[in-house]
Amino acid sequence: MSNEGSPDPTEACASCLPRRSLLLGAVGAVAGFATTVVPDAAVAAPGRWTTLGPASDVPLGSGRFYALHGGAVRYVVTRPRRGEWRAFTGRCPHEGGNLRQFPPRQIQCDFHGSRFWFNNGHFISGPEPNIPDLKKYEVRVRSGSVQVR
Ligand code: FES
Predict the structure, then answer these.
(1) Candidate CATH numbers 1.25.40.10, 2.102.10.10, 3.40.50.11030, 2.170.150.40; the one for domain 2-148
(2) Which is nearest to 78 in space by CA: 27, 11, 3, 148?
């Protein structure tokens, strides 16, 4: 599995770039952009567990992003507390942007800045008042690897 070390500028809409740059400048301490690209051969059939990567790649108190099928499917896995794992869609429910930053205890979309709690996926704030919560997935750790379905 390979890692993306920096944002992919081709994924952002042109009108969002100034806002994104502003956000990045304003929240320099925000962790993010570490995305593991899961190879197609590792992706299980629907309803079965897909292994995303080593559990040790997901920092306690934060999380990690995963891209499958060339980025068409995205997950975010978080570890709110020791032994506690959560998995959500990696797509923003506002307009489908990529969730790619981890402000403290939160997950943030870098398109228009929507934020969600990293322990339950509930919407906190964004460009509109009623953006849905993040869709949840089942997550487990087996033999040191994070799996979702
Ligand atoms: S796509 Fe608009 S805030 Fe995520």
Answers:
(1) 2.102.10.10
(2) 148
**Domain residues of the chain, as ranges?**
2-148
Supply the pTM of this predicted model: 0.79
Q: Output 139 or 46, whichever has higher pLDDT.
A: 139
Where does ligand 1 bind, in terms of residues with CB under 6 Å? 92, 94-97, 109, 111-114, 126-127
**Substitution candidate for ligand 1 out of 95, 100, 123, 133 with most atoms within 8 A of CB:** 95
